[in-house]
Amino acid sequence: MFAKPLPGRTTAAAEGDVVVLLIGMRINHFWAVHHWIPVITAMPRMLRELAKDPARGLLGHVLLTASPRTYYVVQYWESKEKLYAYAAAPDMLHHKAWSIINRKDRAGKLRSHVGLWHESYIVPEGSYEAIYFDMPPFGLAAATGVLPLESRGRRAADRFAHRSPAAGSGSGAEAAAGSGAAADR
User: Fold this and answer.
1) Nearest residue to 19 (alpha-carbon basis) of 84, 63, 72
2) Which terminal CB of the chain, N or C, has fewer other CB atoms within 10 Å?
3) pLDDT at position 1 over 70
């Protein structure tokens, strides 16, 4: 379960656009255990469901905590279409969980004991880069694979400028490489 660090500097093998979903919960009232326990246990169940069917499009995830009250997951998806399809699939746990929440909301039975949130981002190729130093595969690299840093460039600007073979020209590489905002790490 504990991955061994890869020596040296590596980068993520991501190609094309990257779809990132941040999704989480906040426990607003610790004493309302019967309200937040079902919520906090739902996400690991959804992640197991997705792991059983890689064709659904989840590439990888990282479970995180922001405080004793706030827990969230960073997810990496193949495409926004696959993310939408999972969220709307009536046979999947996400759809069932939201059906329960929506029924409670319409009935006036939600009591603000638990906060829920998500943010979705479609990050175009040329708008992301990654570097890992003496790290096991993590985050985007765990989701898409690991490459030696030199394969994408030692400088952040070089990694921003990388284009996958299918990407073609005119996709913003010049702007990313020339911005000067990405400093060498």
Assistant:
1) 84
2) N
3) no
- Give the residue among 118, 94, 140, 89 at the shortest CA–CA distance from 26: 118
Cα distance between residue 5 and residue 68, in whole Å: 28
- Residue 7: HSE in the Cβ half-sphere, 13 Å Cα cutoff: 0
pTM: 0.84
Query: Given this model, what pLDDT does residue 167 score?
Result: 62
- Residue-wise burial string across 41-58, b where 16 or more C-beta atoms lie within 10 A, e elsewhere: ebbeebbebbeeeeebbb
Angle at 138 between CA 135 and CA 139, to 5 degrees: 145
Specify whether the CB–CB gap between 159 and 130 falls below 8 A: yes
